[in-house]
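Task: sequence design from structure.
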């Protein structure tokens, strides 16, 4: 599926931007299904808030069990000081995940559509397994920052094999919180691992002291893309996104794959004890 130039760009930059890879009608179908799942969710069922900057302190049971479920997580800024919603609940959700690609037929069909198997094969993944999926809302005005990070921190394998497929379900711009990435940053080391702690909960374990480039620094460049674009991300690539302070939403679907030939540690935060990993 990929040209030799695109493969060379991937090896050089650690990411690929593939405009118009997905039919906009397929994007609309996924948005519609997401709205149905949100409508069926009971806001009173739990208050699991997604905070990337202090994730080790908010890894509750909902989060740790979500590897084989579809769970919903709130925006940090969706509540006032009295823990009441400042917007309607449907507009307060940060994301849901992390197994809808296996549990929901619409998400499964989207995740396994052509030409994704060929795309992943062209990048050298011999035995692709669909590990994790997220529908990320990046809500208007309150969509939170996702700090600079490497996906292999959270989805570690030995050797490192994780690849992220990030699908723009709506246009993503600097104004509404598009991705920022460091070209060539995948050639650097893995800085840390996010894993289950022996005493319960989770923890970050430092592996290398090399500083990650931070949002706002020139090493991270914006990836403004249109609806239907797929951004492919190497597991070691530093990337993140600014808050969405605009009036426009920025829905995206993120799918992470690992090679089934690699070792997946038992202390990774995401475990699927009831659900074996499946491929395309």
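Answer:
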């Amino acid at each position: 599926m990929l040209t030799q130039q695109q493969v060379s760009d991937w090896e050089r930059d650690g990411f690929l931007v593939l405009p118009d890879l997905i039919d906009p009608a397929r994007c609309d179908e996924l948005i519609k299904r997401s709205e149905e799942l949100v409508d069926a969710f009971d806001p009173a069922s739990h208050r699991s808030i997604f905070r990337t900057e202090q994730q080790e302190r908010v890894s509750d049971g909902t989060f740790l069990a979500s590897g084989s479920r579809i769970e919903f997580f709130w925006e940090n800024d969706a509540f006032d000081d009295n823990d009441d919603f400042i917007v309607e609940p449907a507009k307060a959700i940060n994301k849901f995940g992390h197994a809808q690609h296996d549990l929901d037929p619409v998400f499964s069909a989207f995740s396994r559509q052509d030409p994704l198997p060929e795309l992943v094969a062209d990048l050298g993944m011999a035995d692709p397994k669909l590990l994790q999926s997220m529908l990320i809302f990046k809500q208007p005005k309150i969509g939170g920052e996702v700090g600079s990070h490497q996906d292999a921190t959270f989805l570690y394998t030995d050797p490192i094999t994780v690849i992220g497929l990030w699908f723009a379900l709506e246009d993503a711009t600097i104004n509404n919180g598009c991705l920022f990435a460091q070209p060539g940053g995948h050639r650097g080391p893995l800085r840390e691992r996010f894993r289950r702690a022996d005493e319960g909960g989770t923890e970050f374990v430092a592996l290398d002291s090399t500083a990650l480039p931070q949002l706002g620094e020139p090493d991270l460049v914006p990836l403004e893309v249109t609806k239907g674009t797929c951004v492919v991300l190497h597991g070691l690539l530093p990337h993140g996104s600014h808050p969405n302070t605009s009036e426009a939403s920025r829905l995206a679907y993120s799918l992470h794959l690992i090679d089934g030939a690699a070792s997946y540690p038992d202390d990774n935060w995401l475990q699927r004890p009831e659900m074996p990993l499946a491929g395309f």
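The first strand starts at residue 15 and ends at 18.
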